[in-house]
Amino acid sequence: MKAIEMSCLLLSGAAMTGALLLGTLSSNAHAATAAAKAAVPKEAIEACKGKKEGDKVDLPVANGKAAKAICRKAGNQLVAMRTASIGP
Known about the structure:
47% of the residues lie in helices and 28% in strands. The chain has helices at residues 3-38, 42-46; strands spanning 56-60, 66-74, 77-87. It has a 3-stranded antiparallel β-sheet. It is elongated.
């Protein structure tokens, strides 16, 4: 094989490897974003049903206690985000 043909083969192989790597990284980033959205507890969503952004709510937590929270937008969804430690 000529040196020029060999160089072309090496360059095309490197380009394909780079494209595959970039595609994999992009796919992993999308999966991480989707997993983060799915990780929102249903209690955090339910606490803000019928509320608007900025409303204060009690977020149910372990042992029947509640935490103070504020309804905030997470993507297209309103979810309760804790603001203080657990209280009565």
